[in-house]
Amino acid sequence: MDAILALKQKLETERPARYEQLPDIELYKDQLLTYMTRQLAGGGQAEELTGAMVNNYIKNGLLPRPAGKRYTRCHLACLTAICQLKQVLSVSQTHALLKAQPDLENPQEFYNRYLASLDRAMDLTAGCLQPGLSRQEIAKQALDLCLNAYAQQQAALSLLSILEQT
What we know:
Layout (H helix, E strand, L loop, with lengths): L2 H11 L15 H11 L11 H9 L13 H13 L5 H9 L7 H22 L6 H31 L1
Helix pairs in contact: 1-6, 4-6
């Protein structure tokens, strides 16, 4: 199978679990970390989530404190967003972006909107990929995607700066 076709199919199909599919039982930290490894499996080169990272997210107000050392769907949804956004933004920028979300107080509503936006972005990117390209065409396509990512990151950072000023 063509590697680009496999990548295209991965982008089209591998997504984090929907809110309703997240475990409805409370998890201890080790269970949370194990679950998040599976939740973020399609995310590419993301670093592995650790207990220390979770503690830092809680300490910095990015993640709500667990009730009695038990984590809920809300924590899983927030961590999914944090881990993915952290691939593009710093932790402080991720914090500012999440705190500005109008529906953050309703984790299910926010997460569903987050996933819908992620779906659109992944589908758009998958649509750009063309299997069967020569090595030169692959290099050109990779450059185009990198420049698109750069432009979008610059726009996102500018919007975050505007949010901080208002």
